[in-house]
Description:
Order of helices and strands: EHHEHHHEEEEEEHEEEEEEH
Shape: globular
Number of domains: 1
Number of strands: 14
CATH superfamily: Lipoprotein localisation LolA/LolB/LppX
Radius of gyration: 21 Å
Oligomer: single chain
CATH architecture: Clam
Distance between the termini: 37 Å
Amino acid sequence: MWRGAVFLGAPHRRARSHPVARMQCHPRLSVLAREANVSMLRVSDEVLDSERNRGTAVRPNIKDRRHWKRLVAWGVCAGCMLGWGSPAFAATATREKTSKAAASVEPQAVAALERMGDFLRCQRTFEVTAKTTTDAILDNGQKVQFAGTTDLRARRPDRLRVDSASDLKQRQYFYDGKHFTVNGPGTGFYASFDAPPTLEKTLEAAEQRYDIELPLVDLFYWGTDKGRAKQLKSAVYVGPATVEGVATDQYAFRQGDVDWQVWIEKGERPVPRKFVVTSVQEPSQPQHVATLDWNLKPRFDDASFNFVPPRDAHRIAFEDTRQRAGRNTPNRSR
């Protein structure tokens, strides 16, 4: 999981076949649906998406997702804005400055991320909606784009709901303080596990035990690992910018195999309003772009975080990654 990007979306993806791929229905899915005996089936994108993607033109794989996440995650992760509102930092002058300092790490840019993270961690209740576009690379090298929307509602310390829909799939995540549930609308399947009493512990269990990575989850981790500043190759202030009518400050960073940018709202709410992640290891340099709309004073009741399964939905079980690892380990005693 990115410790600090808004899956913030997905990284770039690569399609399975040239020029496009068609999803095949999971071989056991129809049988399981008829028998409604799916308690031991692992929840995965292959299963939950198989019916919806029957006949879909492209179903790309995610390439090196965790690598992207950890790089960007910290990046978009930490910060807060600076007081760079002075006329001395006009856009033209700023861009000239950043071009000369392309290989430097400006302390002000790192401080902006750290301050943003401090602000986000202080928010007990919030709602954020992300509109995203993600590039995919076909096997023939052609770049295609997919769009999506994610809505996240959180009430610390023990409530979370995420509704995510894209051109490729839909997914819902519920945490009510006792149970964590993943639902695949339109698939007829959902899965739950008994969850720890806090949001952070639940997110950790979802990732480590069941390999589940939620969209926007890094909003809860940004700025928690300030030592990552040492991994930055470049960090610069680009200049003032407007994102959907909101005044922001734009920052650009270079880290590992990705370049990424973040636009942080000016004023008393230093929240990230936009980010762009570019993979520089691919010749076509695919991008993931997200714009964020924030509500820092929402009103939620407990019912907002409770999952009520549809009548015709079948419950399936998560497979613990530790059990899977054990099955895949050769028996050396033989």
